[in-house]
Fold these 4 entries.
Entry 1:
Amino acid sequence: MAKPAAAGGPATPEKKGKKKTFKKKERKHVTHGIAHIQASFNNTIVTIADQTGNVLSWKSSGSLGFRGSRKGTPFAAQQAASNAASMARDHGVRSVEVRVSGPGSGRESAIRALAAAGIEVRNIKDATPIPHNGCRPPKRRRV
């Protein structure tokens, strides 16, 4: 017959096992990248990718905790760009080509923040889509 466990002793044996080993996150070494700035009236998204289009880092005004109409401000765009630039610098990015799209107010401040974060801005291209008389307008309103 089994003896009952002592009142002061441990009921379960202590675990002696393997330590969890975590795979180290791989860092890419990219010196030149492309920074895409999507500036709408409501938000600003800054994405930094390598030459082939693989995303290295990204930040948006909303992901930083700005809510409502404050997401579309130049200050929020500046914060998003500086955070994305610091993350990209960990991958070795030293210079970027900037492609800006959208009519938002955070366009210029995001570019200035990239430059202030220590990343050389090589050239700036406006990639805002412009319709060349594309869609047919709705029919005339009758009141």
Entry 2:
Amino acid sequence: MRLSATTAGFTVSAVTAAAIGVVLLGAAGHEAPSAGATAQVAAMPVPVAPVVRRTVPVYLDYIGTTEAVRTVTLQAQVTGYLAKRGASDGADVKQGELLYQIDPRDYQAALSQVKAQAQHDAAAHDYARVSQHRNSMLSNDGWVAKDTLDQTTSNFHQSEATLAADAAAIQTAELKLGYTEIRAPFAGRLGKSLVHEGTLINAAGTQFNTLVELDPIYATFNPSETELAAIMRSRSKGRLPVDVQASDDAQQRFSGALSFLDNVVDRSTGTIIARATISNPDHTLLPGQFVHVRVHIADQPDALLVPQVALGSGQLGRFVYVVGKDGKAEQRIVSPGATYGSLIVIDKGVNEGDRIIVGNLQKISVGVPVQPEPAKDGDA
């Protein structure tokens, strides 16, 4: 079939019009995303906190264990039946407080007996003294033989020795009577009692209980030999403060000072035994606990600190987001140091005056426009 020129022209015009329409639609399609993109780059509100400059303490941290300053096993020195207990298991007792009482009647009777014997011997001593004095005067006048005088003088000296022996016997009886009372040698806490009323106590060394001193208490830890020089240098300047934390509760902190450094380094571990004496007035710490030990060896001036919540981690290391001069988020690779509460020291990567982004961290990235707002409690 042949087409006329007019028909062909109409066909060309229709194709051209269709092509123009496609071009216009394509142009319109490219313009719509541009409007949406403009809406997406609107500045995002973010909480910020300034970099803080201050002097901070420098610590060495260790894991240590607590030890009692004094521990004693209460034992018997005399035989007898246990009459009563003066304190319950686990009780906090004062120095000199009665803990156990062995039946004292046998020892009271023995004391009375030796005292009576001492009185008898004292009477004999009086007679020997008078007799010796009388014979001495008569011997001077020739009325008493020298041998008789010597005999009465010997009797007098023997009676003196007997009185001395009686005094020692009385002292021994008093000591044994005193041993029937087991009293606390120092203030501390009792453990579980091993004997009860009515038990026959053997003088061979029956154990009653264990008493430990809780205030103060030792915290023992092991610094490495590389840290020893810094510790000794700080210690030479005076008291070296030590803080102890028994759990993750920051409120449970106890203070004291370094009180002992061993005189030899363990060659197998490269560490040395150190001990701090810690105040424990409420008896919260008990011997054998694992504790966090923090030794304050120096102060670092002009340290830069940022909130810990601002730190992120990536393939290049730890980083923070900073509000740049153009109002966009910048990423800074940082070297974090010690922590102090909610803040952490940044050794390099930030400067004083930088505004650190502490919230909406999952929603921002490098180059995103941000609107800084003061940080509030709970921002994350």
Entry 3:
Amino acid sequence: MRFPTPPRKSYPSDLTDEQYALLDPLVPAEQPSLGRPREVDYREVINAILYLNRSGCQWDMLPHDLPPKSTVYDYFTKWRDDGTWQRMIDALRVQVRVAAGREPTPSAASVDSQSAKTTATGGERGYDGGKKVTGRKRHVFVDTLGLLLAVAVTAASVDDAAAVPSLFLQAKPESVPRLKKVWADAKYHNHELKRWMKQERPAWDLEVVSRPRGAKGFVLLPKRWVVERTFSWHDRCRRHSKDYERRTDSSEAMIKVSAIGLMVRRLAPAKHLSPFNYAHAA
């Protein structure tokens, strides 16, 4: 059932008609019941989640012309728990790849982590001695276009190589049948991880791309830089300036929301914006 969107001044994060048309088939269908018919507009719910994700505001500070916090948060957690956000990502990623002239599924990917401070909200956290950050780590797995395949959020104290199995298990071999090569940095040079890969993902070759000897500061590493670019894309959403979520699965869902917003803008850019052009992953 479609609901007319109430007239209001639009926000920069709002979906256009073309963008929502991409998501509409991916939103779970309303279950028939004897209860009260649904009155909420799914498009406005997604607009509210995108607004919070982009602006970084608190749940109870959503603008009054968007659906109430209780309604929006209920759908955010419901779609987090039933896998809707991940299904949206998987469907949109195929469309973006095809539109870019690529095969629907990737043959290569990259993995990396990003440490982020947490707040007084509570929940799982730890200390990353390398980055000197108390908080959490965002572990992401992306294809060669930088599009999200999987995400896992852990305490910052968790070693990168130790977190990879939970990340890779989300990407089932049948969903990425062409995947053969995975690029990573020196943090993933781990014998226990190699044994796990040989047993659980024998078709995937994990290649460590090392920094040049004597290099100081930031160095653009071949093949791996696409995952760094993905972090930069997501960091444009102020919700990721710190990890504000109490639960790690909510943190993962927020990263997925950022990825969804990014892909719908790639597929249906606003009329005043130029289409996005990918750089080659050298």
Entry 4:
Amino acid sequence: MVPSARKVDQTAAGRRLAAPRHVRYRRAVEFTAHQDQMALQRLRDQGGFNGDRIADCGLATVYASGSDWLKVTVEKTDLSQSNLAGTRIREATFAHTSLRKARLRGARMERVELYFCDLNEVDASEVSARRAKVHGSEAMNAVFTGAQLAVTRFEDTKLYRARFDQALLVRVVFLDSRLGGASLEKADFSGARLVDVSLRAANLQGASFAGATLVGVDFTDASLDGADFRGAVAIGCRFPAGSSP
């Protein structure tokens, strides 16, 4: 039986309506300079980004709390003072991007890499990060209070006065090939739990580990002048020759 013309028209119309929806929400898009508003519209429409590339955009102070960023690449973009609290970020790369004073409280991150980013004064308290890498960045006065970091690396990153108090760090590595050890002067690890963490040759002058639980932490060749270990529990840790908590 041959379908009526009306049914054919309805089918064709249905196809015409479905196509834009497919293109709008599923195809990866590249946003470059002067396309800030388009990127923001994408964020609002999708509740995040999926496979997109954002480069040379100014998105400072953007509100993206609770959004979902999957397989996104962000380059040379200003996200300073943005609200990314509760954001889910997976398999993403951030390069030469400013997240200064951004709010990442409670964000969930997995397989995220940050290269040469400005993370100064970022609020990453209670963040959950697994298999993350921070390289060549600045994170001075950054807050990781109550964070849960697992299988994570901080490489060649300045962490002066960074706060890791009450955090849980498992198999985390801090290193700096330029300085001979990570820069963690006056960092705060008070009340934190560190398990299989490498702080080898790190500069920990004036750092606080008060009340911390340290299991299998490597402090070999670390600078611990003025470091506070009051009330800390150290199990199976390696300290510089002639020093102990």
